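Teaching note: in complex prediction, the entire set of molecules is handled at once rather than each chain in isolation. The prompt given to students was simply: 'Predict the structure of this complex.' The entities are:
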Amino acid sequence: MLQRIAILGTGLLGASTGLALRAAGFPGEIIGWNRSPEQGQAAVSNGSIDSLAPDIFTAVRGSQIILLATPIYSILDLMEQLSGVLTPAQLLTDVGSTKAIITAAGNRLYNQPGRAGFLPGHPMAGKELGGATNAEAAIFHNAVWIFTTLASDDNPAQLPPAAVELAAEWRTWVKAFGCRMLDIDAARHDELIAWVSHLPQFLATAFTALIEDQVGDTDELKAVGGRALREMTRLGASPYSMWRDIAYTNTDSIARSLHALEQRLAHIRENLRTPELRDEFDLANRFRKG
Amino acid sequence: MLQRIAILGTGLLGASTGLALRAAGFPGEIIGWNRSPEQGQAAVSNGSIDSLAPDIFTAVRGSQIILLATPIYSILDLMEQLSGVLTPAQLLTDVGSTKAIITAAGNRLYNQPGRAGFLPGHPMAGKELGGATNAEAAIFHNAVWIFTTLASDDNPAQLPPAAVELAAEWRTWVKAFGCRMLDIDAARHDELIAWVSHLPQFLATAFTALIEDQVGDTDELKAVGGRALREMTRLGASPYSMWRDIAYTNTDSIARSLHALEQRLAHIRENLRTPELRDEFDLANRFRKG
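The expected output is the structure of the full assembly:
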């Protein structure tokens, strides 16, 4: 039985996971750590974690499951720092948004005889505003929590036997958060997520930056746009600090998806007065009905 | 005092206007007409209009205000057909999404000595799903209802004296719907709306069509996208039948905005690993805070 879970990184996803554990009835202890102690205290204040550890080593000692919920490069740093400390009776898991690099690091540093297990995860949940103060258990309701455990040529490793039970227990909690689970391989994850998650973000950033250039100085004109404008710019509030690591670790897939969208927009632009425009609307209509 | 208003075209905007008039306490009669009598009956059924006229001439006879709420080319047709029938004691107004062509036609066919007045309007409200069955008075709450009455070189005409009072009365109702009003000239309207309304739509159509091509055949993968994907594809459900006329009557401004977005996306694609990416996020963040 799980007695203690450590959450390293008490931002939106880390703190929301703490709240979701509590909402689902997790009876054990939740200890947190955050690079900024002030942000960590916010997670204590709203009940996301029980207490704040002074450093990562204190946080992981005695915790059966350790959740890494920082930006991607910080996850990779933490994985390195903890690799000499964790034991086969512990399971490390994460919420990083790109998975190829993290999964490869997990199989190199963990998932080996005599070492702790590493279960690479990615909950498809979030908000445009980060931080523990915006955390809520409900962001996981009906979301998909992906695990990139499937073996592939690039990713031959498997969880060590001792970690299998802890991983099963973690999945039970994830299910209790209201999530559906999906196991795919890490390379396919990064390719797929570029389309359905990274492209929407970079698209929203590009569109919002363009609109700021064009009408940003006139509040009245911003108001004119209504719901369509509000919705298509909501993700424009997302912080660079989080997306920089995603852009760095999934560059090729994101660049491919952006290029495909540029071509699609050009096609529409060149066909504003031809029947080809109908085909684009029909295809888009089909997605929404499908 | 207004005794009767005619609504020609009882789709989403026409029927919602009828409901908004009732919600605001309009005491007079509302008569409707629709090209498809079945759709017109749906507007009678939900109380958007009191009765359905068999033809446009029956609808306008005895109505002090006539609202044109059809797609743009149909508005232009109706304006032609009614120009020989309406009298100076009547005001024609519309809800068309592009205004340069409609405003010019209004000043040519109406707004002349001995003729009815024409007040070009555009409520910035809507939904991705059309039809009287989706109508609701609330779509106008806090929306901006634009009038393109301001004189400019292209648009020298003004309302004839007899129509001024009816126009003022119409504005009083629009205000009662919960709208703010904005008067700008028609050319500026079309240019501005290309950025804040037409570009979001064509962008959503392009993105949604692309995603349908990429992952449309796998329901599981569609579910992965979560809120960001749902939101950025919502407008993908918009019908071609409505947007065709907009594309035809505001082609240059829409093409310019699409081209600017293509360049912005290419800039982001080329800078996924440079500090330029931060500038784009900062600019987008500023719009959302502004």
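Point out the following to students. Chain B touches chain A through 86 residues (CB under 8 Å). The mean pLDDT of chain B is 93.
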